[in-house]
Amino acid sequence: FFFRRVIVLSLVTRIPLYIFRCEIHTHISREQIDYRVLVPSWYIGREREKERKSEIHKLSDHHTSLFNKILGQLDATSEEETNKQQIRTVFHQTTTMAAQHTYSATSKSNIIPLRAAIKDYAWGIRGLDSRVARFALESGIIDEVDPDTPYAELWIGTHPSGPTTLRDGTTLEQSVGGQLPFLFKVLSAGKALSIQAHPCKERARDLHKNNPKNYVDDNHKPELAVALTPFEAMCGFRRLEEIAILIKKHPEFAACISNEAKLGIFLCSQDEDDKREALRALFKSFMSCPKETSSAQLKVLLKRLQKEQSCDHVHPHEEPPWERKCARAILRLAQQFPGDAGAMAPFLLNYLLIAPGESFYMAANEPHAYVAGEIIECMACSDNVVRAGLTPKFKDVDNLVSMLTYSMGGPTINAGTPAYGDNRIMRYTPPTGEFEVMIISCNPGEDITLPQLPVPAVFIVIEGSGTTDNEDGQRLVMRPGRSYLMPAGCSPLTCSVNAKKRGALRIALAHENQHRDRPTLSSASDFPVSWRGEFALPPEVRTPSLPGTPRMGMSPAGKAAIAKNLNGNGCNGGHFDVPKL
User: Fold this and answer.
1) d(CA 403, CA 415)
2) Contact 380/183 with Cβ under 8 angstroms?
3) How many CA atoms lie within 13 A of 409 on its CB side?
4) Helix (H, G, I), strand (E, B), or coil: what is residue 173?
5) How far apart are CA 290 and CA 258, in angstroms?
6) CA distances from 80 to 69, 75, 301 (A)
7) Which of 36, 131, 238, 387 is catalytic?
8) What is the spatial distance between Cα 257 and Cα 348, in angstroms, rounded to a whole number?
9) pLDDT tens, 285-299?
10) CA distance 413 to 358
11) Which of 42, 68, 158, 419 could form a disulfide with 179 if both were Cys (CB 3.0 to 4.6 A apart)?
12) pLDDT digits (tens, 9 = 90+) for 57-83
């Protein structure tokens, strides 16, 4: 009956159906479709008015099929031009009403929905297993998820390589009146990213000037990462003592390094500058090794490690955990990048496992490579990357070797600090002024008010669902993947979660750093001396009871430390007596 009515009305009024469709979509923008709309009832039958309004109220904010159901329901006695004018008036009233319940793009007090940019790279996670894909689908960036596409990154910012837009097509840069100093990302890594570092401002300017094709801007790129899932990463150089052990244990690795560089490691003094110079010579020698040599040695190394991981492997208690982790990482990387000598990077870089909620910070000129997992990432507004391995992309080994700080030890791992007097708001503050991140949680049956900030901020829902309210009566439905702009000084937004929900609402918010004098994170280069690495004991107390640990003489300071910690019990000539069972 419904379709017959539509056809009859179109014939009587002599207006083809496609005219109605064009007129309707001309006056409906994306942001109005995303919210519930009350349709005027003057052209709907009296008996069906209540039923239609009930259906409309049941629609969720992402249903767009509402407008297809009202095609052709115009007054049959009207002329063509009159009908066209009526439909313009109807939808003008409709969109005006919808805007009052959503936002105004020119308002400085409303939270504004955003459309992030999506990136697919070879290292991304494929299909719906990727959080990036699920977020993009929920927020309407894509209509469907391709199971074969590696969805890697979701960008929220003003960088020209992936500008964020409002739902009416206006760019985020136009809305805030200029570039944001940061770039906010969701990252889903299915396999390892390249071994890389990001240049400081001075070098970034030179790289962009001399090679604009591969270095697209002139800004530095310090970055902060907060884990959403267990996350694996290689960050910062190992201590020289650890590298020396690995050179002795793995002759294949040693064969890729010159004798001069190896002697520099073994004979290095305790001076920090000497250590850095020895590490620089070692890294340069390894990166300069001929491909034929490194590939051949890698094959031999993999064969031996695979045998050790089989039934003939060393008993776990006879090998330190950090050495086992290093060997397994090499096997994994070699499988992902066959023949790439970069698979031996765990011999040089700290291999870290970051738990959900934990964060780390990588300053400029610090080597790193993300291996697997999903994170929230925030950085200065730049896309400059200097790569050296584990990638088919452009590699710039000479620039990477010359730009690194050669600080030893990994970054600090931090789980955030409560902010604004509420332990549900955790801030992650790096020692740089461009950005700061907050993770805000709201449990079922609770509500929480987002901080009012003097600078523009963007946020994305990373978990759970809820609703919002503010002084302007703005209602938003919070679902994972939806991102928003919070203009500077806008009305405080209160989020609430229904008590019947089973999980908390979690929001990740980024803005210009407001706590630079109280950082919670630092990189290895921020320390005056090298981090102690994966050995827990200081050199004076270290003993050969741990396999793979170099034997050192016991100094008076070491003996005093043992006596202080153990009250002199169980200490015999600098070694611990193991009681017999």
Assistant:
1) 30
2) yes
3) 19
4) helix
5) 11
6) 20, 10, 80
7) 387
8) 12
9) 999 999 999 999 999
10) 6
11) 158
12) 444 343 434 344 444 443 444 445 555
